[in-house]
């Protein structure tokens, strides 16, 4: 029933209030996917708002273009309303919910987890020191690494899948086809929703000036992360399928993927940190600023220590750097369903759902 | 800011026309100051509420499809102004609009295809991506990058004139009033619709009940000052352009979202529960402008549009949810209308509707579904109001702009009683009455502002350099 907001949480109700004003205006139609999706509806239930919130990439073009922002009594701040609603959905869908409440909101919690993660790796290196081995396997045996990282990779993956399942049910998602994946993949690959609709970019670090700085920084982080992930995966394949254990030379697949990946990840996160410091926190979810920043720094630390580890090959720095790097990776993996990293998965789900709606 | 700083061009106002003038003058190499009476958050006058620009074009241009020639454009104008225009100025404005679109794009404005759910304007009107405030933001960026000095909260209270030459501009800013000196002056400070006292003097006391759709900063201070000094005026001093908007809209600045498109599918009654005009006279884009005036003529300047559940989704969603009830009497009670009278009005209307409306009803075109023997009749879309729940919206007149302005020639130069001013130009709403004597044509205000803003800026610069 239109205008019946009784089943909404306060944050979704506020998003609904704002979205209904947007729907009567429509001036922002061309900025991103959120508005065309919104203008198909007349009334907004929890599923609609959850989908819109996760489709929003916080480019802020609509905020600076809006004739109804404060001090106007309508007090529109759609990027903030959707950011608040978005984070709430991630907490609601997370399994289990408690760590999501912790890591979504507290940068200190993530930093503490990092300290524990690194300490655990130092302990493992000291207590479980292998009798022999090359490169970093001299510090920590391959079998020990697998014993630590296989569950640390698979368990969060299960948790993410449970969250995505809940998301899909709430937004009324249908069977996914290759075409949906292709549309969503293209959108993510080009960060179309950070392009401002015409390639001019976001209104992020300098009020209403459009720039592609955030889009490009995010691209670097995303592609850097994916390259690093591919590097690890290729190492696994070389190890098990071709019986070629590490260390690998510069012209090996893991290094050809990992070195540029690490560079992109490090540079991209540094750029994101710089932009985030300049941007107005009131246009996001201000209470979560610290946790988001901590997550970006954790990602950057992972990339940077990975590169340093490679640079330190053959020196005495390998052992401590390996513990720091693997500690960061461990913390990153374990916190993935509960940290800002979850956004990547929900964002992808939102893009797939949007492709379904667009294709009818 | 010091009073001994001399500017080449002083621009009074901070909306589209003012910005176009300031940018043109700055690009010509002038030292320019722009005086915006609003605070930064509300800069841009009524331009911040606009959404498109009506543009002549020979073939597809940017987001505009097909072509839109001078004669067709002029005919569209004549249809709304009913002869009240200066044909020479109007045609000049129309012809110059074609050059303006690429100029706007080159100065930061972005366009998008015609918005969804709106009347089809894709051939005639180029929509701003993000709307008028995004355009205003882009122009301020451009002006500041060109070195234009911008002052906010800077209200111009008086222009000093010696004969037909402006010698100084008094501006109240930061608690004190300073006289600025400029070789050329452009006034682009809008109409007077936000001065309710003036509106009440011009229209009558009922104007105090009108809502003002746009900025509260268009108080006509400079217009009044210039008219008092004998500048030639144009346009009916008593008239304003008003449309019927949601009665719950804020007093000022409600903008686009307060419009209500439900009238053609409704029965509209006054405070006493009586109908007063044919709700189905024509399609809404051709009728919305007369309903402000119709509602203004009713007691307490208020009307109530009543629909039933059949019609709820036939028009653009409105910003405020409608009042809803399961019975006509219940709806009357919530709207503060006499229940018995509303019941009688609806019953009489329903009885006069054709017997088989559903097959013939066509919401997007004149379907000829007319009442029989009702006064006033409803000549299209006459379906009985029978399916609960029933919905009601209060309607009030929302003033968009006023017609009284400064008379200008084709170089945007203002005229005094003693002939043209040597160094004063006007652009935008303050002179729009020269071209738009009555009625309104969607997107034409921005065209007048852009064309004459640019001309004023160029002329002012040529005089100063």
Features:
heterodimer, A: 360 residues, mainly alpha, Fumarate Reductase Cytochrome B subunit, 2 domains, 14 helices, 66% helix, 0% strand, elongated, B: 465 residues, alpha/beta, FAD/NAD(P)-binding domain, Flavocytochrome C3, Chain A, domain 1, eight-stranded mixed β-sheet, six-stranded mixed β-sheet, 19 strands, 22% strand
How does this model look, in words?
The complex is a heterodimer of chains A (360) and B (465). Chain A has 360 residues and is mostly helical. Chain A folds into two domains: 10-91, no CATH class; 98-359, Up-down Bundle (Fumarate Reductase Cytochrome B subunit). Helix content of chain A is 66%, strand content 0%. Chain A is elongated. Helix content of chain B is 30%, strand content 22%. Chain B has twelve helices and 19 strands. The interface between A and B is medium-sized, with 34 and 36 residues.
Question: What secondary-structure arrangement, pairings included, does this model have?
Answer:
The complex is a heterodimer of chains A (360) and B (465).
Chain A: H1 10-25, H2 34-39, H3 46-55, H4 61-65, H5 78-93, H6 97-105, H7 107-127, H8 142-170, H9 178-190, H10 213-240, H11 253-278, H12 289-311, H13 318-335, H14 342-359
Helix pairs in contact in A: 1-5, 3-5, 3-14, 5-6, 7-12, 7-13, 8-13, 8-14, 9-14, 10-11, 11-12, 12-13
Chain B: E1 6-12, H1 16-27, E2 32-35, E3 52-54, H2 70-81, H3 87-106, E4 111-112, E5 125-128, H4 132-145, E6 149-151, E7 155-162, E8 165-173, E9 176-187, H5 196-203, E10 211-212, H6 221-228, E11 233-234, E12 240-246, E13 267-270, H7 284-296, E14 303-308, E15 323-325, H8 328-335, H9 339-352, H10 357-360, E16 390-402, E17 405-406, E18 413-416, E19 419-426, H11 429-432, H12 444-464
Parallel strand pairs in B: 1-2, 1-9, 2-6, 9-19, 10-16
Antiparallel strand pairs in B: 3-5, 4-5, 7-8, 8-9, 11-17, 12-16, 13-14, 14-16, 15-16, 18-19
């Amino acid at each position: 029933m239109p205008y019946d907001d009784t089943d909404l949480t306060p944050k979704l109700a506020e998003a609904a209030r704002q979205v209904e004003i947007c729907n009567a205006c429509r001036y922002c139609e061309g900025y991103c996917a959120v508005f065309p999706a919104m203008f198909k509806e007349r009334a907004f239930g929890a599923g609609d708002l959850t989908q819109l919130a996760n489709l929003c990439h916080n480019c802020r073009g609509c905020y600076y273009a809006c004739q109804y922002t404060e001090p106007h009594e309508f007090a529109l701040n759609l990027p903030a309303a959707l950011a608040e609603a978005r984070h709430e959905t991630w907490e609601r869908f997370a399994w289990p919910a408690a760590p999501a409440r912790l890591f979504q909101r507290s940068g200190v919690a993530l930093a503490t987890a990092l300290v524990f993660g690194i300490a655990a790796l130092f302990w493992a290196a000291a207590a479980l020191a292998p009798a022999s081995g090359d490169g970093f396997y001299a510090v920590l045996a391959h079998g020990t690494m697998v014993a630590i990282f296989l569950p640390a990779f698979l368990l969060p993956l299960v948790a993410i899948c449970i969250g995505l399942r809940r998301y899909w049910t709430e937004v009324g998602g249908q069977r996914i086809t290759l075409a949906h994946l292709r549309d969503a993949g293209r959108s993510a690959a080009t960060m179309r929703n950070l392009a401002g609709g015409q390639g001019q970019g976001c209104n992020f670090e300098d009020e209403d000036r459009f720039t592609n700085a955030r889009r490009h920084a995010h691209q670097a982080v995303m592609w850097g992360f994916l390259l690093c992930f591919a590097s690890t995966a290729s190492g696994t394949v070389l190890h098990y399928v071709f019986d070629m254990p590490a260390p690998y030379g510069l012209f090996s697949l893991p290094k050809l993927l990992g070195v540029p990946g690490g560079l992109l990840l490090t540079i991209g996160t540094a750029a994101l940190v710089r932009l985030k410091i300049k941007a107005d926190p009131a246009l996001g979810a201000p209470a979560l600023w610290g946790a988001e920043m901590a997550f970006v720094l954790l990602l950057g630390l992972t990339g940077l220590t990975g590169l340093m580890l490679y640079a330190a090959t053959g020196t005495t720095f390998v052992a401590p750097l390996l513990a720091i790097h693997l500690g960061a990776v461990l913390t990153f993996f374990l916190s993935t369903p509960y940290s800002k990293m979850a956004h990547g998965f929900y964002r992808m789900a939102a893009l797939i759902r949007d492709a379904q709606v667009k294709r009818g | 800011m010091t009073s001994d700083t001399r500017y080449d061009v002083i621009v009074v106002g901070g909306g589209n026309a003012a910005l176009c003038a300031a940018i043109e003058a700055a690009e010509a190499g002038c030292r320019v100051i722009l005086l915006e009476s609003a605070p930064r958050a509300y800069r841009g006058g009524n331009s911040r509420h606009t959404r498109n620009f009506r543009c002549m074009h020979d073939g597809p241009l940017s987001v505009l499809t097909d072509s839109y020639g001078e004669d067709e454009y002029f005919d569209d104008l004549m249809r709304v102004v009913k002869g009240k225009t200066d044909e020479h100025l109007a045609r000049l404005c129309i012809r110059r609009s074609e050059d303006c679109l690429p100029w706007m794009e080159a100065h930061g404005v972005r366009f998008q295809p015609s918005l969804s759910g709106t009347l089809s304007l894709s051939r005639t009107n180029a929509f701003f991506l993000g709307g008028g405030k995004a355009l205003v933001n882009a122009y301020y960026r451009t002006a500041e990058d060109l070195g234009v000095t911008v002052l906010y909260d800077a209200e111009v209270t008086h222009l000093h004139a010696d004969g037909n030459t402006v010698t100084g501009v008094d501006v109240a800013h930061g608690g004190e009033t300073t006289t600025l000196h400029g070789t050329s002056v452009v006034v682009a400070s809008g109409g007077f619709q936000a001065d309710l006292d003036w509106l009440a003097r011009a229209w009558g006391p009922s104007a105090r009940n009108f809502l003002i759709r746009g900025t509260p900063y268009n108080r006509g201070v400079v217009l009044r000052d210039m008219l008092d000094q004998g500048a030639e005026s144009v346009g009916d001093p008593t008239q304003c352009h008003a449309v019927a908007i949601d009665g719950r809209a804020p007093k000022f600045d409600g903008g686009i979202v307060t419009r209500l498109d439900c009238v053609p599918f409704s029965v509209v009654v006054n405070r006493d529960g009586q109908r007063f005009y044919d709700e189905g006279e024509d399609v809404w884009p051709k009728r919305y402008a007369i309903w402000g005036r119709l509602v203004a003529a009713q007691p307490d300047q208020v009307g109530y549009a009543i629909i039933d559940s059949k019609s709820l989704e036939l028009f653009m969603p409105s910003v405020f949810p409608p009042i809803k009830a399961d019975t006509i009497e219940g709806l009357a009670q919530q709207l503060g209308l006499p229940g018995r009278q509303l019941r009688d009005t609806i019953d009489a209307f329903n009885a006069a509707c054709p017997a088989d409306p559903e097959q013939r009803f066509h919401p997007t075109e004149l379907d000829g579904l007319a009442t029989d023997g009702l006064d006033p009749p409803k000549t299209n879309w006459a379906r009985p109001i029978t399916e609960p729940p029933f919905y009601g919206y209060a309607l009030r007149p929302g003033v968009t702009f006023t017609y009284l302005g400064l008379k200008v020639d084709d170089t945007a130069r203002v005229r005094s009683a003693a002939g043209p001013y040597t160094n004063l130009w006007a652009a935008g709403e303050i002179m729009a009455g020269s071209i738009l004597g009555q009625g309104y044509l969607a997107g034409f205000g921005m065209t007048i502002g852009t064309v004459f803003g640019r001309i004023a800026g160029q002329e002012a610069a040529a005089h100063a350099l």
